[in-house]
Amino acid sequence: MPARPAVPNTRDNWSRDRVKHYVRLHGWCPACKHRARAVRAVRARNAEPLRYFTLCAAAAVDVFMLDRLDILPRDNATNRLRVYWCESNGREYADIEDQVGGIGFLGKLEDILLFEDDDDTRNYTLDDEPPLEVRRKLILKDRNSRLREAFPFDILNLDFCGQFFPPHSPVSSPMLRSIDRIMEWQAQAGTVTCPAFTLLLTTCVRRDGNPEAMDELTERLRGNLEESGAFKESYSRSFGDLDPRSLRSDSLPTFFALSFPKAIASSALERDWCAVHEDTFLYERRPNQPRKSYWMLSWIAHFERLDKPASRIGRSRFQDQSAQYERAITAIIEKGYVNVREELRTRSVEERTSADLDAVIDHRNRYLAAIRDGSA
Asked: How far is the C-alpha of 304 from the C-alpha of 293, rounded, in Å?
């Protein structure tokens, strides 16, 4: 029987996308190196190694990129990578499990995170041989429980392929509520201390996004302009017109690159995490039908745990917390975003990005070869 290829050709071709790798190389790598240094400074690597969660798909370029940089831990007994991941496609799940190893969760991340008990799941267990529909819910409950026990993580790479605000979803979409749940679970007590973590968040920006959600982002932006002098000054310098509707109309990607991270930072603050903005990357995807072009937004931020929860702080501490938030959202404007396609037009940048991607793919292939011949 011929050996199965490490990664099917179609997926391998997609993994060689230089636009995507520019974000990995110039955004994800520096942020993950920063977090790895911070973790190693306070935790013994063998006792409490860095904990990485990803939505990596079968090609797992992000995983092997970080392994090549000696950021990810390996299992002492098997030398396999110690990472956590989630995948909803059964075939992809089997490939990741076979090739990457680590600890996987089969299912849609939002469904696993947002599972809630009901009468069925409280009154049955899998050992009871319940009806099929109840069994499905109990399996989801088990995955929810296992995922929660795995928290907190030092780095979360949430490379979502869909929209945070799809056309017909509620304003508080499953993806958005999933981020809230993650912020809650990151704060829980566990075997690993987590005073800070790094978030790599990628989402799709389309013109057909939920208009009510876009209206809410617009009003949140307007509120910040009214409440924060520093934010208003930076916004005025960058865009002139202080009506957020103008920015939304003139450049939806720019509007989303500004308002979406700010909304996440605000939500995190409510759960006692202060965002430290690192970078925003934006690039257009152009399918065969030009009218259906869309953008991908990748936001990178570090989150630091507040000393005292917001619900138990006095006026002076609240003012300090507000100042931290103001600095975070102002930095989003002042740093702007990286237009990836524009950057790749520079030959030296394109060559460096391509060379690094080739090196990562080569590292991945050598790892998979070692797995196949049992020398890993």
From this structure: 36
Strand order in the sheet with 196-205: 101-106, 81-87, 52-54, 155-163, 196-205, 294-305, 273-285, 338-339
Name 361's Cβ contacts closer than 8 Å, sequence gap at least 6.
12, 15, 16, 61, 64
Domain ranges of the chain: 9-373
268 phi and psi, to 5 degrees? -65, -40
Query: What Å distances lie between residue 235 and 179, 226, 230, 242, 266, CA to CA?
Result: 26, 11, 9, 7, 18
Token readout for 91 is 């075939």
Nearest Cα to Cα of residue 301 among 196, 228, 220: 196
Amino acid at 365: N
Q: What angle do CA 316, 318, 323 make, to 5 degrees?
A: 95
348-353: list long-range contacts, CB under 8 Å, 24+ apart: 349/22, 350/18, 352/25, 353/18, 353/21, 353/22, 353/25
Q: Is the pTM higher than 0.85? A: yes
* Cβ neighbour number for residue 227 with a 10 Å cutoff: 11
- How far apart CA 330 and CA 228 sit, in angstroms, is 9
What is the tally of helices (H) and strands (E) in the chain? 16, 8
- Residue 218's pLDDT band (boundaries 50, 70, 90)? very high
Range 258-280 average pLDDT: 90
Minimal CA–CA distance to 352: which of 22, 2, 68, 63? 22
Alpha-carbon span 3 to 362, nearest angstrom? 18
pLDDT tens for residues 153-189?
Answer: 999 999 998 888 888 888 888 999 999 999 999 988 6
Answer with the residue of higher pLDDT: 126 or 63. Answer: 63
Burial (0-12, 13-18, 19+ Cβ within 10 Å), 231: buried
Q: Are 303 and 288 in contact (CB under 8 A)?
A: no
Residue labelled with tokens 């990151």: 186
- Taking alpha carbons only, the member of 203, 208, 202 closest to residue 166 is 208
From 367, 373, 372, 353, select the one nearest 68 (Cα to Cα).
Answer: 367
Is the CB of residue 285 less than 8 Å from the CB of residue 234? no
